[in-house]
User: What shape does this take?
Amino acid sequence: MIENISKDDLFSCYNLDEIGAIAEDIEDYILRKCFKYFYPVQDSEEDKLFHSKCLSISWLTPQHIEIKKIHINEKLWLIASNCFSKMDTEKSPVEKLRCVESAFQILNNSISFCAGKQTNSGVDDIMPILIYVVIKSKPRRMITNLKYIFLC
Assistant: This one.
């Protein structure tokens, strides 16, 4: 699509990055309009199983999965959890991916904020927090949403 757009006289004033953004917007628009044809109406068995597992272990505390005390910030984690919850209301894969990206960025920033430094965290710091927040958010259609993001 990018190649076809870049050849069109209408888009001759745009550089390749701008054409890429235009193509992404077109794809996003089409997928939002076709959402009801691509996205399953009912929860999958995988979604039900994942949701029930999250419910069954929702009693976990940060200490159970060895989150460092210095990194605990439940208020910011709630905001990240809301990003995961919002993912189910979005219609395009790009919008759903932005929810995941926002949640990850909030969690990454929360570690820096709590530790009082401006550096990014490592995977050993963020992974247990990410797992904890996903469990606490108890997403109803996490598997379906992730499949939709990566299949489209």
The chain has eight helices and no strands.
